[in-house]
Amino acid sequence: MVGGGQGAFIGAVHRMAIRLDGQAEVVAGAFASTPERSLDSARELGLSSDRSYSTWQEMLVAERGLGPSERLDAIVIVTPNHTHFEIASAFVDAGFNVLCDKPLVTRVEDALTLSALVARRGVRFAVSYNYSGYPMVREMRSIIADGQLGTIRKVIAEYHQGWLSTDLAAAGDKQASWRGDPALAGAGALGDIATHAEQLVVFTTGLTIESLAADLRSVVPGRQVDDDALIRLRFIGGATGYLSVSQVCVGEENGLTLRVFGEHGTLVWAQEHPNQLRHARGDGSVMIRSRGDSASGPAARSATRLPPGHPEGFIEAFANIYQGFFAAIRGQPDAVFPSIADGVRGVRFVERALTSARHDGGWMSFE
Amino acid sequence: MVGGGQGAFIGAVHRMAIRLDGQAEVVAGAFASTPERSLDSARELGLSSDRSYSTWQEMLVAERGLGPSERLDAIVIVTPNHTHFEIASAFVDAGFNVLCDKPLVTRVEDALTLSALVARRGVRFAVSYNYSGYPMVREMRSIIADGQLGTIRKVIAEYHQGWLSTDLAAAGDKQASWRGDPALAGAGALGDIATHAEQLVVFTTGLTIESLAADLRSVVPGRQVDDDALIRLRFIGGATGYLSVSQVCVGEENGLTLRVFGEHGTLVWAQEHPNQLRHARGDGSVMIRSRGDSASGPAARSATRLPPGHPEGFIEAFANIYQGFFAAIRGQPDAVFPSIADGVRGVRFVERALTSARHDGGWMSFE
Amino acid sequence: MVGGGQGAFIGAVHRMAIRLDGQAEVVAGAFASTPERSLDSARELGLSSDRSYSTWQEMLVAERGLGPSERLDAIVIVTPNHTHFEIASAFVDAGFNVLCDKPLVTRVEDALTLSALVARRGVRFAVSYNYSGYPMVREMRSIIADGQLGTIRKVIAEYHQGWLSTDLAAAGDKQASWRGDPALAGAGALGDIATHAEQLVVFTTGLTIESLAADLRSVVPGRQVDDDALIRLRFIGGATGYLSVSQVCVGEENGLTLRVFGEHGTLVWAQEHPNQLRHARGDGSVMIRSRGDSASGPAARSATRLPPGHPEGFIEAFANIYQGFFAAIRGQPDAVFPSIADGVRGVRFVERALTSARHDGGWMSFE
Amino acid sequence: MVGGGQGAFIGAVHRMAIRLDGQAEVVAGAFASTPERSLDSARELGLSSDRSYSTWQEMLVAERGLGPSERLDAIVIVTPNHTHFEIASAFVDAGFNVLCDKPLVTRVEDALTLSALVARRGVRFAVSYNYSGYPMVREMRSIIADGQLGTIRKVIAEYHQGWLSTDLAAAGDKQASWRGDPALAGAGALGDIATHAEQLVVFTTGLTIESLAADLRSVVPGRQVDDDALIRLRFIGGATGYLSVSQVCVGEENGLTLRVFGEHGTLVWAQEHPNQLRHARGDGSVMIRSRGDSASGPAARSATRLPPGHPEGFIEAFANIYQGFFAAIRGQPDAVFPSIADGVRGVRFVERALTSARHDGGWMSFE
To answer: Which domains does chain B have, with CATH numbers?
Structure first.
């Protein structure tokens, strides 16, 4: 693991997700941007000292020197966005499988370079679009792929948070600080959460974005990155949609919701109550589906650990991403996980949206 | 009453709303576009034959000839949109108070002409934006006017229906027919439901629309008017918002919701569960308010008939519009009801949105 | 109308329910226990002075003297419980149709006497168990009668309110006062709300109570009647159930819910969101039914005024009771309304529950 | 770990809960009732062969022979109920800390014997009442302990499942089989789920049960244990309550809910949406609390891994039980976990309920 040391929210989540199913464990790491904090974090995590590294460069050198049976099976990169490219490239180049936090990188050309390198080296590369790990998200995807909604008409994804309603960076919050610095994060809500919404839309519907148009705002005085956005989408085939994204909605916690309206039915899912899925059908009936219920398809079932009524949550969904990644590493051909292609598309999505915003919110072709 | 004869949904609703509080009754009418159906409807409603009219013109002539004590206190116009202007103008010109269905008329110049006539004649004129009659909508307005949300940041109104998911007009549905004819309705979802959403936003927030941009679509093949729309709003003062409107969302019934996000709090209301109001505050607390609860302000209280927990619904809200209108007729100076100014603004809103759509969804100044 | 004068909550509800559908109007009344308040109330309601009575006795004498075409079609009795018997008996004896508030009377022998009189006089007699007027309650009844749940296993009705959480009677609240006086009300929560729950259970399931056992409490110090109860039920055929009833549950408004569990399915309905009905089936599917949806049976449809998504509420349900009663008066043979048999059963239910409570909550046979 | 081999639902849950926080791992086990399946399970779990045991007796002998640093820190017992006593006693007697599934044992005298042994040996002994690990359950407990509800008036716990709606044991389901055999399980729904409800009530309210009365039924033909129950409770101090418990409620998944009504407020929690807590207060306000929100007290916070809006579920709650148990093993004096006292009380609760049921549901003093 690179990054994710003391006090880092997402690093701890990754470790819980890794541990949950007992398929892997964190055995080596360079956890922070200073050697001291890196080693402190490694000690706290109980790592053996010979695999506790001061820097990711040290880790790279040491680990690539190990024999095949001792070598790390995969590297997890959970550092700030602007560092992803250099770190990921180095480990991929050395032949390591990598799971990298999203957004993949901060520039489209870097995304393409990295993607080409991954292809050249033949490694497995996952991007932690964790929300696509929820069983009922996978069930949505199956229902749509199965044609039960008919032609998709309209897609609405919302991702509303409130934690940046005030100027936390000015108040010294560490996470808010790097996320609010254009140089380090690349973008604000756009990179942080809109990319999740975009990936969910594409993952579940199978649609291809033809063009987009983005209204971006910085609502809180003093903020340098976007904290509120409306991004309209046109899909190949005629469907339309939009992403409403904000981090300044007081009272919203992690309000990611997805609604897909088709000719024959509608699916509604909300991340904060992830074990349910609403399915309305053209005959007027409305079903409340439940994770693990008898109607669940194989994709949802294989992402499910507990019987219906025993709630699974964020960590379990995250662990499903790892399950797919580990399965791919073991050579399973149809393993489901967000790939580097998703990562590249996400970076392009951010770039296109920023470009649209600079052109007064005009439509930009996506490819 | 003009219009609203046999089989007309909204005419029957008006009559229930009128009767509910026992302040008025329907005593005269020309209920349909043919004399025969008009008289049949009047008979069914139990009207005395001397005030059952074949046409609205006949009714106008007869009723304006009556003395002040016998004259109708008000005329209710519930005919298809394209007829509103002629009928309303005639009755206003004759000095009658009028309550007219929305959208007020189909052309901005007619709206302005009618508005000027109303001012000249000094009559009371209401437009049936019935959703603003809900007590918790009025509570939202009070909370915002009271400054509890601070500066408004973002406003989201959705109005999603599914009843036009298929081509009902082709299948012979009468309502769908006139509403789907551009000549008779002026617009589709835009005039029918987006105007409600627009009025709710302005009514509750007190904001003024500076400009708008509209994406309109006709999703169902063969439909000649818009059935799906996204209308973005910029308000004077910097707030933004959007209206998502559709009549082709399978499984949606009458899904009108309103969310107002402010600097210090958020309010969420949904028409299908109108007796509740969610109020999140900047301190992290979330309150579920209930119609008639002890925290209700005077505006909500005076629009409430029953204690909390005894659900009120659509008809009661509609009747609140009549209560305000009747109060104004009786001379109450601060009576709350949607006025001709709301009606004019709604017509302009439709016109501006249609113009934006013709210009590839570009921004149009509102005034 | 007898009773229901100034400030009486339920009298005003009756009048709105009567007016809603325009089938009847209140034209005569003795509205209060003193002549002065009676006449004041009549004046406020705009009644003609010759049918505004000082007392119900005066009204009885005057109205029974009128010819068949001028006579009142029905009498509505909304006085405190202990007066129902005398008033209802007198009007029934004079040949009037009567709709009386529940509980019908305060003593079983009076209930039987009145019932016999009703049969002898051949009048229509309704008891205002208004919750059975909700369309989705009628849909529950149809689904169960249709056998879709198979054998009923368990029935849970809750009726939890909080308005008597403190000693309102001591604080001078008029309603709380008579309802809290054993001599005037007969019982507390038992008569006031448990009877509603009992009627809903029997109405929807069609089951017959074989025996019951009641735990009654007076939770608030100083209260002389029960304010909290658990009443267990055994039905003929083996099903069981219970009613949990309370008026001291802080934060509960009018929390009447009904759950019926059968061999093949479960139905769940909640009065505070009356337009929905949850139907879980043995195959694991869960449907959310909506008032007026296309699956609605004729009983629900005929009790429905608006399309789905346009909420109906308490008054509309109340008006459905009147619709059934008026239909019966017009001679419709299959009119649905709560009859005197329901009223008698409710009085017996209260008596059996009080008896059980006096015997330490032991089981009492119901008939 | 003893028990929990291939196909055992709860064993896998224990292992995920153990792994989640990385504080412990399963390193030895006797996982099934036959040596072959035990060793197969151990192999599947990747245990080293020298700590993969054929039987728990073999495991006991081998492990108690190890030195203090190599010895197991704790034994987890997840076998069928009737075997708990023998296994737990043996390991406790050998000085091991034990976490045992509930119900602790099947006879009160065994519970007392075991409890005395635990005291004598000075080991840590936890019972897996996992629902008390939910953060919002702990928040309920804090709010009540803090006096915010005032005097408790009424407590309602429901635990409704539907998975035994048909005769699964006859159909060959393994879990249903031992749980449906009176000799192996001791009781049906009573031991399996009512004990959870009882523990939640006592844990959150701090009340002491004075007496109880139980109606037990076997609804499904052929079933030998109870599958449906209503258990009434009287608490010392005057509060009352009941547990409604069933495994034959079609459509119910794991419907455990808890409502506590006090003089000054009401708390409502539902296991299927465990991240929320409803708190109504005497001033008429209703708050929706969210796991991890800023109002959370220390008990809830320390049981929380993620920010609000990132759902935690069943496994996380289960892991909180282990966290408390591990903390106690490490010597933390105020570690919170369900202790052997809870286990003993649960066994007594089952015994008292069975006794009451044999006496026609009469009241039984609890101690």
So the answer is: 135-306+341-349 (3.30.360.10)
